[in-house]
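Consider the following input, taken from an annotated entry for Peroxiredoxin (Sphaerisporangium corydalis).
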Amino acid sequence: MSHDPTVLPPGLPVPVDDGACAGLPGTAMPPVALAASGGGTVRVDRTPEGADRLVIYAYPRTARPGEDPLVPDWDLIPGARGCTPEACGFRDNAAGLRAAGAAVIGLSTQDTAYQREAAERLHLPFPLVSDAGHVLTDALGLPTLDVAGERLLRRFTLVVRDGVIEHCFYPVFPPDRHAEEVLAWLRATTR
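Applying the prediction step yields:
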């Protein structure tokens, strides 16, 4: 059954905080460079020039329009649905995030070619980076879920400052309004 990945259906299950990210704040980011949708690599332990913080929002996987979900019960997995609306939220709030001193990247375990298509189709003004080899995931013990034989990231957001995880948003719900939540937090902590 096809669906529109840009629209969140009503009644999605709300993910619960299982504590999987509780120990991340205060942790140094490993010096990992990940392949980026725009070419080259992005270091996750370095804040890009001109920014005070790096916001890394992690998501399970984006879908292409008309593409069926990974599994028929995808919408029943808490926190699985909403990757495309979340990316669009960060896109739509990009100017405000920049003004608040943050650079943004999206992180998933999808390969770079898949991410490149999504970044271009959604007109994202920031890169999507691939942890297909689970290098960063394993180094930090990031929360994952296994679906249809694939190890995917759960939805969370890390705020990195001076190479250290300053804050972690987890769980994230609803994903389509998460960028606004991050922006409000950034504004509140930079005053």
